[in-house]
Amino acid sequence: MASLLLISGFTGLILIGVPIAFAMVVAVAVAIFLGGTMPLAIIGQRMGSGVENFTFLAVPLFILAGTIMEHSGISRRLVNLGRVLVGHLPGGMGQVVIVSEIFFSGISGASLSDASAIGSLMHPALRRSGYQAGQATGLVAAACAMGVLIPPCLAMVVMGAVAGVSVTALFIAGLVPGLIMALALMVLVYVQARRGTLPGGEAAASWRETFVAMRESVIPLMMPVIIFGGILGGIFSPTEAAAVAVLYALIVGVLVYREITLRSFYDMLVETAKVTGAVGVIVGAASGFSVLLALDGAPVSIAAAVEALSSDPIVFLIVVNLLFLLFGALLDGIPALLLFVPILLPVATTLGIDPLHFTLLSIASLGVGMILPPIGIMLLVICSITNTPIAEASRAMMPYLAILLVCLLVIIAFPWTVVALPRAFGF
Amino acid sequence: MTQALDWLERLIGFVAAMLVLAFTVIILVDVVCRYWLLYSLSWPAELTILLFQWTCFLGAALALRRGAHFGLDILVSMLSPRQRTAGALLSLLLVGAANVVIIVACVPMIRKAQYSIYPTLPLSHAIVYYGVLASAVLMLVFTVEQGVLRLRGEAPRHEPAAEGV
After folding, report:
1. Interchain proximity A243–B31, CB inside 8 Å
2. For residue A275, which residues of chain B lie inside 8 Å, CB to CB?
3. Do the beta carbons of residue A405 and residue A368 sit within 8 Å?
4. pTM to 2 decimals?
5. pLDDT, tens digit, for every residue of A157-180?
6. CA-to-CA distance for B147 and B134, rounded, in angstroms?
7. How many Cβ atoms sit within 10 Å of the Cβ of residue A255?
8. What are phi and psi of B21, to 5 degrees?
9. What ipTM did this prediction achieve?
10. What is the rounded distance in angstroms from the CA atom of residue A16 to the CA atom of residue A6?
11. CA nearest B140 in A: which residue?
C-alpha cells in the first residue's frame, strides 16, 4: 500500500513540474505520515548518509576533468583524428562523428556535455559535407547515445556505488557493447551512403595529415590511458583515477594548450559543485525512497508480478529495457537509474541474471532512452544546439534508433558481450 | 533582497568550489603518499567524503537558485502562460514543503549523532546533518525568493538560460 502511495504520489508530483529530488521527499514524507510506523528522521538520515560513499567522489572529479579538457581545445584535435582515420569511408563526416564520439566519451564522463560539444562542433561540418539538418542531428544524437557505454561514464560510477557492482568492472564491461553499437552505426551509415541517401566519403588524408592529426591527439588520448592504466595496474581506485585525470587535464589546459585561466578554472569548480549538488540531492532522496519501498516489500511484489508474467530472464530484461527506455527519456539518465535499479536488481538476481549484465544493460537502455523522440533529453539538447526542429531530427533518426535497439537485443541475448571482458580481467 | 541573495549565492559558490578543490588535492596527496612515499595516511578517506557531502549540500542550494535541479517540464510546457505560473507556484510550494520536512527530519539526527565521533577526525558525525540542515534552509530561502518573484510577475533569474534545454 505504501509503495503504491509512494510511486503514484511521486509520479503525480513530477508531472506537475516538481523537481525529482523534492518530489521524492514529499512522497516519502506523506507515506511516513500516513503509515505511522516510521520516524520522519529517516529522511534526514538518508539525505546525509545517502552520499556517504568514496566511490561517489568520482562523479564531480570526472565532470571536472571532462570540463577542463573540453575547454582546452581538444575537440578540434579529436575530430581531426577521426577525420583522417575514417573520413574517406562512404558516409564521410557521419563516420567521423561516430569515431570522434568514442574518443570524446573516453575522456569525458558526462554524456550531455559530450552531446553539447560534439553537436556544436560536428553539425556545421556535417551540413557542409551535404548532410540534411535532420540527418546530421539524428546521427549526432545516435552517436551520443552509444557514447554512454564508453568509459568513463558518470552513470557507471553512480550505479557501481548504488548497486554494489565494481565500477572498474562496469568500465571494462561497457567497452564491447559500446563498440558493437559504434560498429553497427558505422555499417548503417556505410549502407545509407552506398544507396545514395547520405553523402559519400571525403578525400583520403595524406600520410602527413594523418601523422599530424595523430601527434596532436596524443595528449588528449593519454587521459583514458592514465585512467585505465592506473586502475587496471592496481595503482589507484576509480575515484583516485578521476582525481589524477583532473590533475592531468589541468596540466594540459594550463601549461600545454594555455587555454585555462584562473577565472575559467574557478567557474568550472563552481559548475562542478552545482551539478554534483543536483545529483547528490537525488541520491539522498532516492535512498530514502528505496528504503521505504524495500520495507513495504515492493521488490518482492515486483518479482512475483514478473514471475507470474514469465520467469524467463530474457523476457524480464526486455521488459526492464522498455521501462528504462521510457524513463531514460522522461527522467534523464542517473535519476531513473537511482530510482529503479535498487528495486529491480534483487529481482534480476533472483532470476539468475548477472548483476553486471543487468546494470550495464540498464545504463545502455537509458542511453538510448535519452534520444527517444520526441522527449529524450539528449535529443532535445542536440536539437536546441543545432537549431533543428525535433520532428525533422526524429524522422531522420529512426534508422539509427532502430539499429541501437537491435544492439540492445543482442546485448540482452548474449550476456557474454558484457561479462566476458571483465571476467578476463578477474572481475 | 535579490542583491543580498546574489551575494549569498556567490558565497555558496566560492565555498563549494573550495571544497571541490580541497578533496581533489587531498585525494592526490593520498595517492602520492601511498605509492611514492610509501606512507599511508588514515584520515583522507573520511575527510574527503565529508567534504564531498558538504559539496553536495551547498551545490544543491546553488542548483536550486540556478534552476538546475532535474525535473520534468513536458506537461507544464503545454500549459497556457497563466496556468504555467500557477503550476510553478504550486511546484515551489511543494519544494518549500520538502525543505521544511528535511529541516524537521534533520534535528533529531543532529541530536543523535552529536556524540558520535569520526575514528580519524576530531569531529562529530553531527557535522553531516548540520550540512543537510544548512542546505535545506538555503534552499527554502531561495524557494521563497522565487515564489515572491513569481507573485510579482517577474521570471526567476535562471529562466532565460534554462530555455535552451
Report:
1. yes
2. 59, 63, 68
3. yes
4. 0.83
5. 888 888 888 888 999 999 999 999
6. 20
7. 9
8. -60, -45
9. 0.92
10. 16
11. A22
